[in-house]
Amino acid sequence: MTPEQARAAFRAGTVAPTSGWATGFTQTNLIAVPRDWAYDVLLFCQRNPQPCPVLDVTDPGSTATTLAPGADLSRDLPRYRVWRHGELAEEVDDVSGLWQENLVAFSIGCSFTFETGLLAAGIPLRHLEQGRNVSMYVTNRECRPAGRLHGPMVVSMRPIPAGRVDEAIAISGAMPAVHGAPVHVGDPAGLGIADLSRPDFGDPVEAEPGDVPVFWACGVTPQAALMASKPPFAITHSPGHMFITDRRDSEYRVPTAAR
Description:
alpha+beta; 4-stranded antiparallel sheet; globular
């Protein structure tokens, strides 16, 4: 399936987590806020580049993105979240009727992008094997605040066979624009996570014998900041339900000589 075909399916009403869709093409997180909050978001992302790597920013009111000419950010994701004063108001599959003239949208890198490299190397991804959304957790690591925006880092977790962890670190580390290397490996208590079977977002994913939990910074972090900072209005993707761009994953891989 091409990115354009995937976006057309979502626009037609298909709702599904996007991990494994349009393999080889970059996916992004979405956060759209009123213009008077846009600088706070941009500064928050600049100060917290690992969980919030910005790949594109729209003009106020625009639903177009340079990452996929002709696409519509208000219609081409499978699931959206609508936020009012930091509270989740609703989840819908189309926000074109809610998009405001002053909204500025940020496309933020997604860890699904480096999954292509993990799969190519033969590293198993348990959430795909189990047909589930990836597990995501709010951590005890506070992001660096920016203006009115503050909140904790969110991470995604993938159980990785112990003998493949170093390889997974190297593959993801070569892609800093889509979160890069893990922020933690092993005991979830080191991130303040009490129970891996109860993720804050996504689905619980079962580890196989010999697997180690590996945690990457996650683009759902801005949603945790919305809950903490309570802007009057915002639109985001639903966790795991990403925007699929026309950009190749390989475009975000840093050449070996440049590392």
